Amino acid sequence: MSPLLSDYPRYAWHMLAGVRAKMESGLAAQRARDLAPWLDLSQPHDILDVGNGSLRPQYALMRNAGHRVVGIDFVNRPGISWKRSVYTVLRRLYALQLGIPAAAMDQHGLIGGNVGILPFASRSFDLAISNAAFEHFLDVPAVLADLQRVLRPGGMIWAGVHLFTSPSGGHNVSFTQYPLRSLPPGAEPWDHLRAQRRPFTVPLNRWRKGQFLVAFAEQFEVLTHYCGLREGEQWLTPALEEELADYTRDELTCGTLVIVARKRA
Length: 265
What we know:
alpha/beta, globular
């Protein structure tokens, strides 16, 4: 989510206090529970982190757990900037808070590339994971088709998708609240589905829950899906719900859609 100037102090506090690290540890535990009926993560696996992000905590946690992990993201491309230097410091802090060696955060398994054209041989991975990335992919079917190719028969995919239809789905409200609990002064709830007065600052495919489920089902066997995070109930008045009648209440309040799927044998 694109940072707002007013969010930086809160973001810094969350980082220093370990709030974000705790959230990432909880996410890893949640994913392990979701996959447990079909994949034993106590054994080492070949894992692809799709859209690993600049902080790459899930990539690091999986590596530290003994898995062979590759991360692919445009942010992995070489470069020098003040922002990259800041992220280097934040990754070291993350590692300390997560209780893992700083080496787990290194570049060893990172590739800067296009997630829609994966530079891997077919049947290379047992598991693909992705968190808060699918909403940014502008050709979701291409990404899923290539993931289907690089996964082994019976291979799994776990994806957490930040839904566009949620209050924070426009990525232009806050990047520090999970779930979203307050709006900036003058901001209207679900503005991105209404007047769109606040601009979008990152690529968004604007897909809805049903579109993701259909696309995943075309390439994989969808084993389960659920809403992993709810937000916005306090703003969804009867009048606003009527105005947004094209969307279901579930769509409007589900911040994160979790999908667990398997490649057909």
